[in-house]
Amino acid sequence: MRPLRLAFMSSPALGVPCLEALRAAPDLDLVQVVTMGDCRRTRRGEACPTAVGERALALDLPLFRWEAGMAGAAEALLAGLDLDAVVVIAFARILRPSLLALPRLGCLNLHASLLPWGRGASPIQQAILEGLDVTGWSAMLMEERLDAGPVLAREELAVAPDWTAADLAAALAARAPAFLLATLRAWARGELTPEPQDEAAATYACCIAAGAGAIDWRLGAADLARRVRAYQPSPGTWFRRDGARIRLRRAAAVPDGGGAAPGTVVATRPAWRVACGAGALDLLEVVPEGRRPMPAAAYLNGRPSRPGEILENG
């Protein structure tokens, strides 16, 4: 039996381990990688490939950069490759039904949630925001509707209570290759039955707005602590002090805010503690404007605070 001919569509670092696994598997033939167009990431504004694109170039794999308006070109390219399957991870493009119909086995999407929970662009952040104990991967056959196709398999992952979105993404990325290869091979052998999703149970994790990380001290401390972890590293969370933005990288919720108004500093030792709508938030690591991350205690050595000071919302 000839190796399965595959194309891989992905862009972020989350997809890199699966790219490497597909490239190394002797029974798979990865003939094309498709990624988003180059993004500007250097200080001098130079265009750089996505994380998947960069790794594909290093592995000497054929790479197609999908820029705006290139859906037709991408489809034409894939149509000429006699593909058995297309594997998709966090690609952030809507694929036409005509493209989805090209491969013999269909387009297999690895989605970072236990569908039907968490359809959409930000399931990793949403898992942290909602304080989930368990999330995972779903292997889904793609259809025209967003993340609504039938599920072939799921893989659960326990979420540690102190994880940031970056931590959860790293844990998911580490688990993805074995799950993908096992699912892909079982699907090719006809051993899996697609399971329709329960539409009544579907939830959505929408795109995160750039301003979502602005701290509002009127919220509960537990909610704010989850936001700090969910929005690390992007878009980050922040508040203002004397008009200057201070990014908050680590924080912990405590149940007692001392009855103070939201935003009021209630203690500076052993932690910089700020009253919230419910409870209080211990500010543990901050990034002042133009500075590197530092413990809040180190920041206060140079910019002392005192109980009763009012910190501004983000």
Biggest sheet descriptor: 7 strands, mixed
Distinct helical segment count: 8
The total beta strand count reads 17
Give the DSSP E fraction (strand runs of 2 or more residues). Answer: 25-35%
Please describe what this structure looks like.
This protein has 314 residues and is α/β, with parallel strands linked by helices. The chain folds into two domains: 202 residues, Rossmann fold (3-Layer(aba) Sandwich); 92 residues, Methionyl-tRNA Fmet Formyltransferase, Chain A, domain 2 (Roll). 25% of the residues lie in helices and 28% in strands. The protein contains eight helices and 17 strands. A seven-stranded mixed sheet has the order 5-2-1-6-7-9-10, sandwiched between helices. Strands 12, 13, 14, 15, 16 and 17 form a six-stranded antiparallel sheet that branches. Strand 6, helix 4 and strand 7 form a beta-alpha-beta unit. Helix 1 packs parallel to helix 6. The radius of gyration is 23 Å and the shape is elongated. The chain starts with a strand and ends in a 12-residue tail after the last helix.
Brief overview:
It is built from eight helices and 17 strands. By secondary structure, it is of the alpha/beta class.
Write the layout of secondary structure elements.
Layout: E1 4-10, H1 16-24, E2 28-36, E3 39-40, E4 47-48, H2 51-58, E5 63-66, H3 71-79, E6 85-89, H4 97-100, E7 107-111, E8 119-120, H5 123-129, E9 134-141, E10 151-158, H6 165-188, E11 204-205, H7 221-230, E12 237-241, E13 244-254, E14 265-267, E15 272-275, E16 280-288, E17 294-295, H8 296-302
Parallel strand pairs: 1-2, 1-6, 2-5, 6-7, 8-11
Antiparallel strand pairs: 3-4, 7-9, 9-10, 12-13, 13-16, 14-15, 15-16, 16-17
Helix pairs in contact: 1-6, 5-7
